[in-house]
Amino acid sequence: MPAVSASAPGKIILFGEHAVVYGWPAIAIPVHQVQAKAIVLANPRGRPNEVKLQAPAIRLEAWLADLPMTHPLAKAIILVREHFQLATIPACTIRITSAIPVASGLGSGAAVSVALIRALSIFLGHPLPDEQVSSLAYEVEKIHHSNPSGIDNTVITFEQPIFFTRNQPFELLQTGADLTFLIADTGVKSSTAEAVNSVRRNWQSDERKYEGIFDSIGRIALEARNVIEHGPSGQLGDLMTRNQALLKEMGVSSPELDTLVEAAMNSGASGAKLSGGGLGGNMIALAQPEKVDTVKDTLLHSGAADVIITQLKKS
Ligand code: PMV
């Protein structure tokens, strides 16, 4: 059998991270410039269930049987096997590669899961529909942090801009105008679990304050949806900056993120904020096309390890 493969993009959260965990709405878009890929090669001479995993980027080369069930890659494979109620999987090698920086708020964990679940289901002769891919990837997300909202696996599986509220059907977002975002990496790795847990602790110690912050963020996400869908996009930058102020109040920004947000704003961006869990990772800035080069140069001079430019095209 020839090798089969599947890919999945990265993502950014435009509005609403963290508050989305508590039931408020959020907006996310795929980032096609960075992808995770899974390749499955049959090994006709191997025995059933002899599955070799290779992920050079994390220096992993192991048999499935030797990995703990809590390992995200092992978990994804077992979930697919259980979904099809198979006792065994044909012998194969699964190779994972990814250009999505890890622990940076770009959804690398979810993208690897989605690519792997897709590729394996194709290899087994039953390509899974997107709904199912997303729901299995959500189960793997629980390993990364115990209480995921589901926004990462959804936007990465469906590869479309989404308006997302936890435990509700997501909505595809129409876009009224072209939007250009710069994604700047602080170079500081950060754990989503740590960020989500610290927000939970803060929320538990001052529920009133945190409910107020989440509520304000939810309102911003609603307003942003309206602006993205109907334009003009002029107010969108302000909404991002307001969202960032609330994320800072929540305690999930960092000096490096603040420096890049300030650099973006000082060089002509319309708005800027962290994206994802925070405490490091990436920040995003919205910029008019004529400002993009200047903002990019300024971000690189202000310490950004890398800058990706991505566009949301008018629907
Ligand atoms: O996995 P990250 O760091 O891209 O962040 C996910 C967004 C959070 O709202 C912080 C968590 C969640 O499950 O929605």
SSE layout and pairing:
Elements: E1 4-15, E2 26-42, E3 51-55, E4 60-63, H1 72-83, E5 92-98, H2 108-123, H3 130-144, H4 151-158, E6 162-164, E7 171-172, E8 179-185, H5 192-205, H6 207-230, H7 236-250, H8 255-266, E9 271-275, E10 282-286, H9 292-301, E11 306-312
Parallel strand pairs: 3-5
Antiparallel strand pairs: 1-2, 2-5, 2-6, 3-4, 6-7, 8-10, 8-11, 9-10
Helix pairs in contact: 1-2, 1-3, 2-3, 2-4, 3-4, 5-6, 6-7, 8-9
Bound molecules: (3R)-3-hydroxy-3-methyl-5-(phosphonooxy)pentanoic acid.
Offer a concise description of the structure.
With 315 residues, this protein is of the alpha+beta class. Helix content is 40%, strand content 23%. The chain starts with a strand and ends with a strand.
Any idea of the CATH topology of the largest domain? Ribosomal Protein S5, domain 2
List the helices and strands in order. EEEEHEHHHEEEHHHHEEHE
Strand content bin: 15-25%
Average pLDDT figure:
96
Structural domain count: 2
Number of strands: 11
Per the principal axes of the C-alpha atoms, what is the gross shape? globular
Structural class: alpha+beta
Which CATH architecture of the largest domain is right? Answer: 2-Layer Sandwich
CATH class of the largest domain: Alpha Beta
Q: What can you see in these coordinates?
A:
With 315 residues, the chain is an alpha+beta fold. It folds into two domains: 161 residues, Ribosomal Protein S5, domain 2 (2-Layer Sandwich), CATH 3.30.230.10; 139 residues, GHMP kinase, C-terminal domain (Alpha-Beta Plaits, 2-Layer Sandwich), CATH 3.30.70.890. It is built from nine helices and eleven strands. Strands 1, 2, 3, 4, 5, 6 and 7 form a seven-stranded mixed sheet that branches. Strands 9-10-8-11 form a four-stranded antiparallel sheet. A hairpin with a 6-residue loop joins strand 9 and strand 10. Helix 1 runs parallel beside helix 2 and helix 3 packs antiparallel against helix 4. The two termini are 39 Å apart. The relative contact order is 0.17. The site of (3R)-3-hydroxy-3-methyl-5-(phosphonooxy)pentanoic acid (PMV) has 15 residues, from helix 4 and helix 5.
